[in-house]
Amino acid sequence: MASTISGRRTFFTFLLICTFLSVSTIKVCEAQTKPPTAKGLSYTFYDKSCPKLESIIRKELKKIFKNDVGQAAGLLRLHFHDCFVQGCDGSVLLDGSASGPSEKDAPPNLTLRAEAFKIIEDLRRRLEKSCGRVVSCSDITALAARDAVFLSGGPEYEIPLGRRDGLTFATRNETLANLPAPSSNATTILNSLATKNLDATDVVALSGGHTIGIGHCNSFSDRLFPTQDPVMDKTFGRNLRLTCPTNTTTNTTVLDIRSPNTFDNKYYVDLMNRQGLFNSDQDLYTDKRTRGIVTSFAVNQSLFFDKFVFAMLKMGQLSVLTGKQGEIRANCSVRNADSKSFLTTVVGDMVEQIIQM
Ligand code: HEM
Fold it and tell me: Which residues neighbour 89 within 8 Å (Cβ) at sequence distance 6 or greater?
């Protein structure tokens, strides 16, 4: 009898330990699937003020991509270019003004798709009709990029919202300094992204954005002329020279030859076959620090998806404006006319700083 009781006790203790372990393991896993949420952003931000926000955007984009799948790539890149320069504040959307040429006019942004800007403004107008002027252009851009990934076959994930639109745009030099060139090697890319708290896994995962979309010949012609980059697969290079016969052609080609319109892990398979388009892509497989990560994503798509989501959540929260900072633009390409919002922000910030002192 005594031995049965002690046997049961052992069994229950074992169960308890297992439950404890599995609960704590889940907690650890949960903690790893999402980076910390920036102060002022939340996953329920528009639940009351614009409950249909996400369904409106998803429905519109589904229609748009059905007609032209390429627009998904344009929207994903737009969010990246917004976040890397001055944070995800919609500054890339602003037109130039008397104060000077805008971010949009800086070289890396000249190949952003004009249609992407139009899609964001159309969505803003539609959302204003449904909810009033409550949703920021920077949040619309973030949601459009998120849906671009999912609707092209990639992972589905929630993003925190509540970004506010910036009142200024970056200069040409700031823009150039924050968006690495496609000719960069892995060291340059790793160092550049490290300044934004993005590590090697984030770098390789985010570069996987190149699983969809296109590039212009002049973004990689340095690998073809005067001679072909020896790292590049010979046949791949020969075919690229057919698309780009001289180093001044303005043609385009796909970034991922295996599945150019599908968000999958084939970009990493391309790299392993030395068929990456930009040096910044291919060198991730050459460099010892990132080669293993490339291989791990090439053989395991769900690992890539998990790491991509994690890195996108980090990227999507870079230097966000929240609370009373910035504004909600009435037109994504211009700052609101009433400089009141600008003054309110500046004065508000000063008051807050004085209170804190
Ligand atoms: C890490 C450094 C990166 C470099 C050097 C880089 C460079 C480039 C270049 C040169 C193009 C082609 C521009 C053209 O010739 O038209 C391009 C396209 C693209 N990039 Fe990146 N990129 C980087 C990171 C990213 C990230 C983080 C994402 C998103 C997560 C991204 C998404 C895209 C997409 C989707 C396109 C295709 C755009 C289209 O078809 O309109 N890139 N990138």
Answer: 82, 138, 163, 164, 165, 166, 319, 320, 321, 326
How far apart (Å, rounded) are the C-alpha atoms in residues 156 and 158?
A: 7
* Tokens encoding 103: 């971010």
pLDDT in tens, 259-314: 999 999 999 999 999 999 999 999 999 999 999 999 999 999 999 999 999 999 99
Q: Is 81 a known active-site residue?
A: yes
Query: How far does the centroid of ligand 1 lie from the alpha carbon of residue 4, in Å?
Result: 66
Q: 113 CA distance to ligand 1 centroid (A)?
A: 12
SS3 24: helix
Q: Find the Cα–Cα–Cα–Cα dihedral 115, 192, 95, 254, rounded to 10°.
A: -20
CA-to-CA distance for 167 and 93, rounded, in angstroms? 11
Say what the pTM is.
Answer: 0.89
Report the residue among 92, 210, 290 best suited for mutation to probe ligand 1: largest number of ligand atoms under 8 A from its CB: 210
The dihedral built from the CA positions of residue 43, 45, 49 and 53, taken in this order, carries a sign that is: negative
